[in-house]
Amino acid sequence: MAFILPIPPMQDLKITFQESILVSPSKQTDDDDPNKSIFLSNIDQILNYNIPTVHFFKANPDFPPQIVPKRLKMALQRVLQVHYHFMAGRFKLNQQLGRLEIDCNSAGAGFVVASSDYSLDDLGDFVYPNLGFRQLAVQTLDNLGPEVEQPLCVFQVTSFKCGGFCIGMSTNHVLLDGASAQIFIENLATQAFDDKPLAVIPCNNRHLLAARSPPHVEFPHPEFFKPDLPEVVGPPVFDCKREELDYTTFSLTSKAINYLKGKAKENISYSTTKITSFNVVAALIWRCKALSNDAEYNKDRVSTLLNVVDLRSRLNPPLPDSYSGNAVLVAYSSATCEDIEKWPFSKLVEMVSEAPKRVSDEYSKSVIDWLEINKGLPCGEYMVSSWLRLRFGEVVYPWGKPVYSGPVVSHRKDICWIFPGVDGVNALVSLPAKEMERFVALFREFFPQSIIN
Fold first, then answer.
1. Does the structure show a pLDDT above 60 at 29?
2. Are 251 and 426 in contact (CB under 8 A)?
3. Tens digit of pLDDT for each residue in 242-296?
4. Which letter does DSSP use for residue 397 in this model?
5. Which Pfam families match (predicted)?
6. Is pLDDT at 313 greater than 70 in this prediction?
7. What's the chain's average pLDDT?
8. What angle do CA 382, 286, 46 make, to 5 degrees?
């Protein structure tokens, strides 16, 4: 298997868009208040950007291309009815509080039906970071016009010449984090059947992560910063500069992962260090990113890695596993570039492993209170987000399981997504060309030729 997967040449999938509409809940219940506003936690507030994903399916003779969109539309109407009614709403700014809320006005989710002139086999390896996949998970409905607010999520069914198809989903991160997106997709799949109940009833009480009154900040929080803005109307947007990027998927086989784990065990200091697939890959990604950042090496520059951490089991009492909002914070690891280059690999793995232990119940509440006061944003050179425990590829639809599920490349050069591979782990990296060239060289240099080839 190829060790480093560069972007393939096919970027235009020759898509024809056949339908582009808004889908509202199938019906309203007596308990559903159409004027209800959903409270958004301080964590929700800072995640106002879209996450597009693609889910490919082989042809199923029982579900031809004209049937799948009808089933998925029906399923979407059902899940929006009660438990996910907020996903059919729109953002509104509470002027008095300066906070985003979701207006549950049933304005609708986006729904797109399209077709491609290609077959699935023409696309090659789905793991490749294909820019063309952006056409399979559009983020806006261009036919709405400037006077109509865009939906917070868009679902797209694209059929291919072979009878296979792709379900693309573009969802604003404010709505769901990774764990709650997994539950949502499971629920959406059940509602595409004729007689299945929801897989999991979501917990929509986002007040569970509300700040304390008054706020009480007990710890320093260098993983966040307060934007230096003269006036902030509403929460700041966590985004990065848009520029020309190269995209590469680093496909680490089980042989490569075992090599990294072996290196991590050398000179290890802490017996509590968790030498997991994620920790060793994240440590290597951090090293390559830190040392590839500058055209001229600056040994004194401090590089900070942010590791996305699920809070559900860390709080007291724990959050329900079915909590549908964003229950994630970042754990940080910082070191100078000189140390990152000279330290043994085991030291970097130790730091990545130990950082999440800092995120306790008390620490999490302190972060939420800090955000209440400062309306801040994550502060780090690079963020790694693990999808290794998400089971998107295991979700059973009436037409079967997807043959591949994964993220779509975006303009985010500050985030690396780590997700399952067929035999190991994949890491999707997006960087400017010169930086990517140095990153790839550092990555290759870390392994013996017997593993790279």
1. no
2. yes
3. 888 999 999 999 999 999 999 999 887 767 788 999 999 999 999 999 999 876 6
4. B
5. Transferase (PF02458)
6. yes
7. 92
8. 20
- What stretches of 58-190 adopt beta strand conformation (E)? 90-94, 99-103, 109-116, 153-159, 165-172
How far apart, in whole angstroms, are the C-alpha atoms of residue 290 and residue 435?
Answer: 10
Q: Give the list of residues 6+ apart from residue 409 with CB closer than 8 angstroms, or none.
A: 7, 129, 130, 131, 133, 134, 247, 428, 430
Length of the chain: 453
Condensed to tens digits (0 to 9), the pLDDT of residues 82-135 reads 899 999 999 999 888 889 999 999 999 999 999 999 999 999 889 888 899 999
Answer yes or no: is pLDDT of 30 > 50.
no
Token code pair at residue 439:
């990153």
Q: Which of 217, 120, 227, 210 is nearest to 166 (CA)?
A: 120
> Distance between alpha carbon 412 and the CA centroid of its chain, in Å?
11
In tens, the pLDDT along 397-432 reads 999 999 999 999 988 899 999 999 888 999 999 999
| Full DSSP string of 276-312 | -HHHHHHHHHHHHHHHHS-SS--TT-EEEEEEEEE-T
What the block records as the tokens of 344 is 């043994």
Kind plus residue range of the DSSP H or E element containing 429: strand 424-431
Angle at which helices 254-265 and 277-292 pack, to 10 degrees? 80
Q: Which residues contact 137 (CB under 8 A, 6 or more apart)?
A: 52, 53, 54, 154, 156, 168, 169, 170, 408
Q: Is 333 helix (H, G, I), strand (E, B) or coil?
A: strand
* Domains of the chain with bracketed CATH: 4-206 (3.30.559.10), 224-452 (3.30.559.10)
Q: What is d(CA 312, CA 207) in angstroms, rounded to the nearest whole number?
A: 14
Q: Tokens 């059929």 — which residue?
A: 159
CA–CA gap between residue 404 and residue 406 (Å, rounded):
7
Token pair of 350, please?
A: 């130790």
